[in-house]
């Protein structure tokens, strides 16, 4: 037993909003504390490498039935308003990430359905988990250790939904599972947290549990499901949907639990700050996903999507810089409603031969990560494929700047006619690209695992490639549902920050699932950054782009860059020694003020793949100049007042424009310019002798 830390519990109504935040209902929050009754030490050792943990043949009793008591919400289908990428290659981005490690078995089939694959990549090995088993493999796929998770934790509880991350700030693995004493009464709800001693998954680990029934320090008779773990430099965050036990009451709701990382790793008591009853845009945010931040160490971003569809996603920004030994002193800085292309509940996934479709998920966010200063997130949506509705991958990349509403950089979908996509996972790379893995099946395709993504600067998902093909169809019904997923996982390598490891499910044999692990990254490519520019009507300016190497970040010389404005080809140029390309562009006379999209495409070379970038051309009104002739006369004399009008952007003399004349500030008359830009009026001098401005 460890001496408990002291804290003063309080309930807080949160109204703190950053500039630009959309006001949402205040989430409830409170502190909690638990002295760890026990903590568990276990070892993942080389002695286990001879065999993988297997369980008895599958029985329906061990199928996860957590959602079976609730009717699944399936509204009448509606479809996204954003044109999806057909999975045959886009107009300019056509290459899927290269599979650098073809792969190996993650975990062989166990008795649990579905397996809930998760994984984290360390510097030298991989921690690979499904609902019952934790495997350790090296990068070559050699099985180093395989153990039952409940046995490792020393618990007789039912456990599920492992979620593992590599804590790059602390150099260790950390994971969580949810646990129950009884899956009928849903009593004894806990979050188990386990972490390695150092940066290898082999060797010593520590585990402890925290009470999931509590909101702050109050027993709410609730239990957690679909958990996610997120990390920053200072804090650990658990996110989940919470359900009332039969002894409790109330609807399900979303909840976040923040803990100071020093508390988590020191083996003593644990304090936390809970946020629950999350809501935005007038509806609940039931399934919050805290993003692990690879390079935003003092900001926590939590993402939610509306389960049954919407045209918004919600991003919450938390500041954890005031952490300490009394628990994470986390502050909600803003709740941002982000406009996106509409999304809707996807259908289940078709299979060959009329086999029962795979149970698909709703529109919840399935994975979120912060990398290269951007927030990446992914879920599924319904799309129209000509034969009804299909399920597609929908991915986001958001520019997140502290205390500001996020800006959407990528909002893209991927699908192919007659096929359904499910359970995508995503992570960003060091240069701002993304790798996405997901399941796919259809009337002519067995359940398989695939990979796609998008490069830095791209605005749409690439076409996909096969990671592991399914061998047969899959049917294991429980209460009428053919469970699959519930997750696929992407994990960035902490060594090569551009390589992403993937763990997903496929049909290893008829009616039998397997999981597969592979690595992928984009081949080195051009990073193309065109500059924004403003040009006056009838004026000429330069369209420019700077090109670097995605691997080395060095300037790229000798690459051909083609420029387009609003999809119309302008010209091409070859980059100079500084990586710059430039072409002239003239805005036609008579063009109204507007904005136009500049697209710059760097052609593929022997060493670098093609890529593109976009920027904005702003067309403004042209500046003009009037030249006025001086006149000499005497009082009462009639003279001609003369002025000439020209456009400065091209020195064009302007006809048909009305010119008003004043003398000494008094209106004298007006005239329309002729073909030479001249306007003239007669004027009778009424002033006395002197000089007067015209």
Q: Could you explain how this protein is built, in words?
A:
By secondary structure, the protein is an all-beta fold. The protein is built from two helices and 53 strands. A hairpin with a 7-residue loop joins strand 29 and strand 30 (407-415). The longest helix is centred in the first third of the chain and has 5 residues, at 149-153.
Q: Report the total helices.
A: 2
Structural class: mainly beta
Describe the main β-sheet briefly.
6 strands, antiparallel
Radius of gyration: 31 Å
Shape, principal axes of CA atoms: elongated
Low-confidence stretches: 1-25, 47-84, 88-93, 322-327
- Give the N-to-C terminal Cα separation: 94 Å
Short summary of the structure?
This protein is mainly beta and 694 residues long. It is built from two helices and 53 strands.
């Amino acid at each position: 037993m460890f001496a408990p830390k002291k804290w003063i519990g309080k309930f807080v109504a949160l109204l703190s909003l950053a500039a630009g935040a959309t006001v949402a209902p205040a989430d409830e929050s409170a502190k909690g504390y638990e002295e760890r009754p026990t903590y568990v030490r276990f070892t993942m050792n080389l002695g286990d490498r001879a065999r993988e943990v297997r369980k008895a043949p599958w029985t329906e009793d061990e199928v996860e039935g957590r959602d079976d008591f609730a009717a699944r919400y399936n509204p009448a289908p509606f479809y996204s308003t954003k044109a999806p990428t057909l999975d045959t290659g886009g107009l300019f981005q056509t290459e899927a990430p290269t599979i650098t490690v073809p792969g190996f078995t993650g975990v062989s089939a166990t008795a649990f359905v579905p397996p809930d694959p998760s994984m984290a990549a360390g510097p030298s090995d991989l921690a690979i988990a499904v609902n019952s088993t934790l495997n350790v493999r090296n990068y070559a796929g050699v099985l180093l250790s395989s153990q039952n998770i409940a046995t490792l934790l020393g618990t007789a509880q039912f456990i599920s939904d492992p979620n593992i991350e590599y804590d790059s700030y602390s150099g260790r693995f950390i994971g969580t599972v949810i646990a129950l004493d009884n899956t009928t009464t849903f009593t004894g709800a806990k979050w188990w947290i386990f972490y390695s001693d150092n940066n290898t998954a082999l060797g010593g680990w520590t585990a402890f549990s925290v009470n999931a029934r509590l909101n702050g320090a109050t027993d709410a008779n609730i239990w957690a499901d679909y958990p996610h773990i997120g990390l920053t430099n200072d804090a650990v965050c658990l996110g989940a949907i919470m359900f009332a036990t039969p002894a409790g009451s109330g609807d399900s709701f979303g909840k976040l639990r923040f803990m100071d990382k020093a508390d988590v790793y020191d083996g003593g008591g644990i304090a936390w700050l809970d946020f629950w009853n999350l809501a935005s845009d007038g509806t609940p945010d039931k399934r919050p996903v805290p993003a692990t931040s690879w390079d935003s160490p003092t900001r926590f971003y939590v993402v939610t999507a509306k389960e049954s569809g919407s045209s918004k996603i919600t991003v919450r920004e938390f500041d954890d810089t005031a952490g300490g030994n009394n628990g994470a002193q986390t502050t909600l800085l803003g709740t941002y409603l982000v406009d996106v292309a509409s999304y809707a509940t996807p259908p289940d996934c078709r299979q060959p031969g009329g086999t029962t479709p795979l149970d698909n998920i709703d529109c919840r966010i399935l994975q979120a990560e912060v990398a290269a200063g951007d927030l990446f997130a992914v879920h599924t949506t319904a799309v129209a494929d000509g034969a009804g509705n299909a399920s597609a991958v929908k991915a986001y990349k958001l520019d997140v700047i502290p205390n500001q509403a996020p800006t959407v950089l990528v909002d893209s979908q991927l699908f192919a006619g007659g096929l359904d996509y499910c359970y995508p996972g995503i992570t960003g790379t060091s240069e701002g690209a993304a790798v996405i893995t997901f399941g796919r099946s259809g009337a002519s395709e067995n359940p398989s695992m695939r990979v796609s993504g998008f490069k830095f600067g791209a605005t749409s998902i690439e076409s996909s490639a096969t990671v592991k093909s399914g061998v047969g169809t899959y049917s294991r019904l429980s209460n009428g549902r053919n469970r699959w997923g519930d997750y696929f996982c992407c994990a960035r390598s902490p060594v090569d920050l551009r390589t992403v490891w993937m763990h997903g499910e496929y049909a290893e044999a008829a009616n039998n699932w397997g999981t597969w692990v592979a690595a992928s990254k984009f081949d080195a490519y051009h990073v193309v950054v065109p500059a924004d520019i403003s040009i006056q009507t009838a004026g000429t300016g330069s369209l420019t782009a700077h090109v670097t190497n995605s691997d080395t970040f060095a300037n790229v010389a000798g690459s051909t860059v083609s420029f387009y404005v609003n999809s119309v080809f302008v010209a091409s140029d070859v980059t100079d020694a500084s990586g710059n390309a430039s072409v002239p562009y003239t805005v036609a006379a008579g063009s109204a003020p507007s904005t136009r999209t500049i697209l710059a495409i760097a052609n593929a070379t022997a060493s670098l793949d093609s890529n593109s970038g976009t920027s904005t051309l702003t067309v403004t009104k042209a500046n003009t100049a009037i030249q006025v002739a001086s006149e000499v006369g005497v009082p009462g004399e009639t003279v001609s007042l003369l002025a000439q009008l020209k456009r400065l952007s091209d020195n064009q003399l302007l006809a048909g424009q009305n010119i008003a004349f004043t003398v000494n500030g008094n209106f004298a008359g007006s005239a329309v310019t002729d073909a030479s830009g001249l306007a003239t009026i007669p004027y009778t001098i009424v002033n006395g002798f002197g000089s007067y401005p015209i």
